[in-house]
Amino acid sequence: MLVMRHDKILVSEIANPKESKGGILLTDEQGIKSNRGIVKAVNADTTLEIGQRVVFSEFAGTNIIVDGEKLLIIADESLWAVEE
After folding, report:
1. What does the pLDDT read at residue 16?
2. How far is CA 2 from each of CA 50, 60, 73, rounded to the nearest angstrom?
3. In 14, 21, 34, 74, which residue has its Cα 20 to 30 A from 28's Cα atom?
4. What share of the chain is helix, strand, coil (3-state, %, to 5)?
Protein backbone atom coordinates (compact mmCIF):
# COMPACT_ATOMS: atom_id res chain seq x y z
CA MET A 1 0.00 0.00 0.00
CA LEU A 2 1.10 3.56 -0.61
CA VAL A 3 2.06 5.95 2.16
CA MET A 4 1.13 9.48 1.18
CA ARG A 5 3.51 12.41 1.69
CA HIS A 6 2.95 16.04 2.62
CA ASP A 7 -0.74 17.00 2.32
CA LYS A 8 -1.75 14.30 -0.18
CA ILE A 9 -4.59 11.78 0.16
CA LEU A 10 -5.32 8.72 -2.00
CA VAL A 11 -8.99 8.35 -2.94
CA SER A 12 -11.02 5.76 -4.83
CA GLU A 13 -13.77 7.57 -6.73
CA ILE A 14 -17.40 6.61 -6.15
CA ALA A 15 -19.15 6.31 -9.51
CA ASN A 16 -22.04 8.60 -10.29
CA PRO A 17 -25.44 6.89 -10.17
CA LYS A 18 -26.71 5.44 -13.45
CA GLU A 19 -30.36 6.14 -12.60
CA SER A 20 -32.08 9.07 -10.91
CA LYS A 21 -34.34 8.62 -7.89
CA GLY A 22 -37.28 9.07 -10.25
CA GLY A 23 -36.10 6.23 -12.51
CA ILE A 24 -34.60 8.32 -15.32
CA LEU A 25 -31.52 6.67 -16.85
CA LEU A 26 -28.43 8.88 -16.71
CA THR A 27 -25.68 8.63 -19.31
CA ASP A 28 -21.99 9.46 -19.21
CA GLU A 29 -22.45 11.78 -22.20
CA GLN A 30 -22.88 14.74 -19.88
CA GLY A 31 -19.22 14.33 -18.89
CA ILE A 32 -19.90 14.90 -15.21
CA LYS A 33 -16.97 13.60 -13.19
CA SER A 34 -17.63 12.11 -9.78
CA ASN A 35 -16.56 14.36 -6.90
CA ARG A 36 -17.04 11.80 -4.12
CA GLY A 37 -14.69 9.09 -3.00
CA ILE A 38 -13.44 6.72 -0.32
CA VAL A 39 -10.09 7.42 1.37
CA LYS A 40 -7.58 4.64 0.64
CA ALA A 41 -4.36 6.13 2.08
CA VAL A 42 -3.46 9.21 4.10
CA ASN A 43 -0.40 11.06 5.32
CA ALA A 44 0.70 11.00 8.96
CA ASP A 45 -0.44 14.58 9.65
CA THR A 46 -4.11 14.25 8.63
CA THR A 47 -7.19 13.70 10.76
CA LEU A 48 -8.81 11.61 8.03
CA GLU A 49 -9.08 7.85 8.35
CA ILE A 50 -8.95 5.16 5.70
CA GLY A 51 -12.47 4.24 4.63
CA GLN A 52 -14.04 7.65 5.20
CA ARG A 53 -16.15 9.11 2.40
CA VAL A 54 -15.13 12.55 1.18
CA VAL A 55 -16.34 15.21 -1.26
CA PHE A 56 -13.73 17.07 -3.29
CA SER A 57 -13.36 19.58 -6.11
CA GLU A 58 -14.39 18.29 -9.53
CA PHE A 59 -11.00 19.22 -10.98
CA ALA A 60 -8.90 18.01 -8.05
CA GLY A 61 -6.06 15.57 -8.21
CA THR A 62 -4.06 13.31 -10.44
CA ASN A 63 -5.31 9.96 -11.70
CA ILE A 64 -3.12 6.90 -11.16
CA ILE A 65 -3.64 3.15 -11.48
CA VAL A 66 -2.46 0.88 -8.65
CA ASP A 67 -2.94 -2.89 -8.95
CA GLY A 68 -5.50 -2.32 -11.71
CA GLU A 69 -7.60 0.09 -9.63
CA LYS A 70 -8.08 3.67 -10.81
CA LEU A 71 -7.27 6.04 -7.93
CA LEU A 72 -6.92 9.77 -7.42
CA ILE A 73 -4.19 11.60 -5.50
CA ILE A 74 -5.57 14.86 -4.14
CA ALA A 75 -4.32 17.61 -1.86
CA ASP A 76 -5.98 18.02 1.53
CA GLU A 77 -7.01 21.58 0.56
CA SER A 78 -9.11 20.18 -2.32
CA LEU A 79 -11.41 18.38 0.12
CA TRP A 80 -14.74 20.11 0.65
CA ALA A 81 -16.37 17.79 3.16
CA VAL A 82 -16.26 14.47 5.00
CA GLU A 83 -19.45 12.42 5.05
CA GLU A 84 -20.58 11.24 8.47
Report:
1. 66
2. 12, 19, 11
3. 74
4. 5, 40, 50
